[in-house]
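Shift notes (night). Ran GntR family transcriptional regulator while the centrifuge was going.
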Amino acid sequence: MIVYDPDSPTPAFEQIRSQIAAAAASGALAPGTRLPSVRRLAADLDIAPNTVARAYRELEQSGVVVTRGRGGTVVADASAAPAARAHAFVAEMRSLGVPRATILGLVEDALSTPATMHH
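Came back to this:
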């Protein structure tokens, strides 16, 4: 499911975060789908557990996943998808160093563009 490329310039936690976010947004990971435990995924990818934990933390902060204690980490309900996508977009723009005013401008431009242009 998740592929880690150690030769990529993208940090490991971001590779994990972006792949899970994209799979959740596309529906490839349905709401309620349980993700592997931090330790299991870290072992499978041969990376540090803290790296996976950071990716999961960021996914939870952006509303993509929910952690349910012993119930594990699961993909959030689809009704939260618009907010999760907005958070994911902002997080991605921030990770690229895009200033707040530019992010807001991009959103304003997208909102003023006819819907037929989005596909």
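The radius of gyration is 15 Å. The beta strands are 65-67, 73-75.
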